[in-house]
Amino acid sequence: MTVSRVLRNRGDVSQATRERVLAASKRLGYVPNKIAGALASQRVNLVAVIIPSMSNMVFPEVMTGISEVLEESPLQPVVGITHYRPEREERVLYEMLSWRPSGVIIAGLEHSDASRAMLENAGIPIVEIMDTDGTPVDSVVGISHRRAGKEMANAIAAAGYKRIAFLGTKMPLDHRARKRFEGFTGALAKAGIEMADHEFYSGGSALLKGREMTETVLKRTPDIDFLYYSNDMIAAGGLLYCLDNGIAVPGQVGLAGFNGIELLDGMNPKLATMDACRREIGRKAAEIIARCTEAGLDHADERIELTPRLSIGDTLQRG
Amino acid sequence: MTVSRVLRNRGDVSQATRERVLAASKRLGYVPNKIAGALASQRVNLVAVIIPSMSNMVFPEVMTGISEVLEESPLQPVVGITHYRPEREERVLYEMLSWRPSGVIIAGLEHSDASRAMLENAGIPIVEIMDTDGTPVDSVVGISHRRAGKEMANAIAAAGYKRIAFLGTKMPLDHRARKRFEGFTGALAKAGIEMADHEFYSGGSALLKGREMTETVLKRTPDIDFLYYSNDMIAAGGLLYCLDNGIAVPGQVGLAGFNGIELLDGMNPKLATMDACRREIGRKAAEIIARCTEAGLDHADERIELTPRLSIGDTLQRG
DNA sequence: CTGAAAGCGCTAACAG
DNA sequence: CTGTTAGCGCTTTCAG
What we know:
By secondary structure, the first copy, chain A, is α/β, with parallel strands linked by helices. Chain A is about 45% helix and about 15% strand.
């Protein structure tokens, strides 16, 4: 009826009626039922955002980017967490799709067959984010982690380091860390350098793990001259360990992390890292969905590869 | 029809039919439409979670707690971000309520009149979290920030510090930081100590801001012997500043933060802080909603006040 | 155990 | 400009 029209600012309604309706709806504390609305109109202003985790600093920033652009549109993000587990991704995706969202933003290019099938058949724009090394269902925005690993390796080799260790997460399910590792070792090999040591962890406080792993590696392989970490948080832990134990940085060992988290800005010396463009990725992904929704398109087929900036900081240069 | 019954495991269906339906639904990649389902059944397995921010380490952990318990139930969290702005809270709440969720978990006790009215009339369980200093709409789970400030002040005074400064966020909209500040100054006053200096910031990298504010305060009031920060991140920045500048901690100045973030575990010396029970708050809040939903109740009227634990660390004791 | 029928609260299209 | 009508795709109830 008319009420619906005024509440949605659609169609022609006289000023008088509009005011009467608005007043009544306010007085009664009326909140429209979007469920019914969505069912009738076949339109839902929700964007499904599916990410592995919320607790490691990287995805909250992606979310910030997404929110920033969606706030300018009628769309709303709804997030689901997979804990890096494909079976959870499948379930979360299924749940989300059953609400018929306007689009999906999902981390990574690796999905189970069932997930992939759902994405392909959803009939809405899909943006896979973070990673560009692979084949997307529809659109993709991210960086090449293989290239990121490679470039870091080249920078380290160019600085003259020779005895290099890798410290990171156990990677069976973190494909992006794995790709960085692969790119890294590959480039080192090309430079004629073999990795001198490596250490992996899972779970626990990253800062603390960084300390522990660093200690382990430096005790096991004392002639190490560079430590490359799979993320900034463990790198920061490693840096603190070195400082506490009188290990000269970067004189005796150099360090580098990955992500470019804000946390590092306040540290001294400043850690070398590579910016993962997290917020920008979120923004671009949201923009694709917003554009499709506005235009009524069910896919965009865009491919945006961002370039991570290497930040030398104070820890990637011979003292 | 029958299909609906098997997909929901309800009612009696013969094994044969069940299998036939399951096979067909899988083959066709059928994803049920929850919108229609929700409209028909008047039941929605969504829990609205409304928080101010996702980027400061505290709310992600609350979310972790919420997710942990909701994962064991049919309920799903849907989060909305307010950026500490009441008008955004209002809008987000309105949007969320229009999806008729099974419950609301919302940060803080301070809401606009309109928001409060919506919460009161929603007819679903509401849990206000983080803070217990005030009057909840329905249930509340959190800590008393006023008391947290007070207890920290007492611990500092008991340790013999006399020239105390407060460093924190600008607080017009962060009611919890404000309450801690009030409790803190109140208790100091009772101990006959007047605050020696204070400094506020807004925005930017917390770690970096912590450094800057610490420098400002120590230069302006050189005889300061204790720095109390409104959160751990700026406290960590302050600690790093002291270490870099040869200021003995806790010999020359003591430091304390607030939140008990995991980040501190890896630092050395270990910062004094007070655990805000973030994950536990999330868990308890989710449990209340889950319980109500299961029992079909539309409110719980529970009040859970957690006790923050003071962690002395290495920075709250005369050297 | 299975089918048929009546809505859920809205939107969209059409008449007045 | 405003009222009426027919669904949206399910769940629920009631008969077979």
